[in-house]
Each structure stands twice: as C-alpha cells, then as structure tokens.
Specification:
two-stranded antiparallel ribbon, 9 strands, alpha+beta, Beta-lactamase
C-alpha cells in the first residue's frame, strides 16, 4: 500500500513539474556553446521560483532517450543507503583487486569518494549487494523511466544503467534531482540528505553548485555525456540537465563542465545576483 501511494504521488509530481509548451522559454542562442565545442545536445534549466524552463532543443530534452550512465549513481546510492546495504557516506566499498586503466579506482573507496570520482566497478558491486528484486522494487516505486518498461532488470544487474537496456530522457533526469533537492523522493530524510551532500561540488558566498556526471554511448554508438544537478543563489534553486553527444569521448569529458559553466554564466549565474 505504501508503494502504491508513493507511485501515485510521484506520478502527480512528475506531471506538475514536467516541461510543457506553457512553461517553456526556448533560447536558441545557447546553441553557440554546443557549436563552438563541435558537439550536439540539449540543455534545460528549471527556475523553481516561477516554474519556468529555459531550454535549448526542447524535443531532444523531452523525448530523446539515453542510458543514464553514471548519473544512476544517484539512484544506486539512495537505494543502498535506504536499505542498509551501506550505512553512510564514509562506509568503505572494497576494491575487487582488478587492475583498471583508471588508477583511482584501484583501491578501497568510501561511498562519497566513489561517487565523486564515479568509480564504476564499486557501484556495480553495490548494485549486486542490493540485489535484483530489491533494486527493481525501488525503481518501480520511484517511477524512474517507467514508461514502456524502460527500466526492467534482466540478467544484467551490474550493468543495466550502462548497456542501453535502461533509458531516460532529460525531463525525467531533471525531475529526479529536483525531488531529491526538496526531499520529495520516497526515501528517509537522512538518505536524501547524504546523497544531496555528495552531489555538492562548489560552495561560496555567491552560489552553490551540485551535480553528477555520466558518460556512455548514444543509441547509434557515439559517445554521450550528462551533467545533472542544481545551482543555488540567494537560497533560490535552479535545476539543470545538460546532455552532449560528440565524436570523441575524451573531448566530451573535458568539455562538459566548461559548456555547463559557460551557459550558466550567459544566464547570469555565479555572481550571487539571481
């Protein structure tokens, strides 16, 4: 009964916060930041105070589906904490002993450090620790990527968010980070507080910036990346989703935060005046 109630509530919240023609302001000038970097993609910023989206490429933001890649570490962490598979952000996720090209991954890591450096194998092991049935139950409860059964786990518990068998759109990504910020997800307050804290990357007198990145492949096989999160100025949150596609994976990784910050600067952030 608890799960059904949450599904109903989340469905209504998602409906009320979704991107519709009545609350969208398109800004084609944002395209120059994609063009200058030689990439394609979409961007959306939701001003929570007035309920308005500023969007570049509305159709791609709302309707195009991609693997969540490492942005799924937000969900993975929430479920692991809520179910007691890990106690807090300081708990250690052990290294499996396999040497990988990313040397930062070749060690035991705390949950918060594994989240920060996006340590894929540590979160794959955490998903296995959660278990297929428990993971699927919580995904159903969240209603995350629920349309057309886009998030059904088969025999790929440690990779379903990476291997194209699970797909989300930008609008759904924004809905998750927005509800996380306000503590509106079906998890305990403590659980959401921990994950919100892990997402925080910059904080000063003018603004706070929180985000999670993800790197994977678009359906046609080219590299793609996400940056999802929020920026807060004067206690006023704005939620964003940036999605990029390009030819070169390394270039995308190097460009994504620069593109995000250039767009946010153009939209008059970082000076504490919003």
């Amino acid at each position: 009964m608890r799960k059904l109630s949450w599904l109903i509530v989340i469905g209504w919240v998602a409906l009320l916060e979704s991107c519709t023609p009545n609350n969208v302001k398109t800004d084609e000038k944002l395209g120059k930041y994609f063009d200058e970097a030689g990439v394609t993609g979409s961007f959306a910023l939701f001003d929570n105070g007035i309920g308005e989206f500023t969007v570049y490429d509305v159709a791609k933001f709302k309707d195009s589906l991609y693997t969540p890649a490492s942005t799924f570490k937000i969900i993975n962490s929430l479920i692991a904490l809520e179910t007691g598979r890990i106690n807090n952000e300081k708990d250690i996720l052990p290294w499996d002993g396999v040497q990988r090209d990313n040397s930062e991954w070749n060690q035991d890591l705390s949950l918060e450090k594994a989240f920060e450096i996006s340590a894929v194998p540590h979160f794959q092991a955490l998903a296995v620790r959660i278990g297929k049935d428990t993971m699927q139950s919580w995904l159903d409860t969240l209603g995350y990527a629920a349309k057309e059964n886009r998030f059904v786990i088969n025999n790929n518990l440690s990779s379903f968010w990476l291997d194209q068998s699970a797909k989300v759109c930008g609008d759904e990504q924004l809905g998750i980070v927005k509800r996380l910020y306000f503590g509106q997800l079906p998890f305990q307050k403590r659980t959401q507080d921990i994950v919100r804290k892990m997402m925080l990357r910059e904080s000063n007198s003018n603004y706070t910036l929180a985000y999670k990145t993800g790197l994977g492949q678009a359906p046609q096989g080219e590299p793609m990346t996400w940056v999802v999160g929020w920026i807060e100025e004067n206690k006023h949150p704005y939620f964003f989703v940036l999605h990029l596609e390009g030819k070169d994976e390394t270039a995308l990784v190097n460009q994504r935060l620069n593109i995000l910050k250039n767009i946010l600067t153009y939209l008059n952030f970082f000076e504490g005046k919003r």
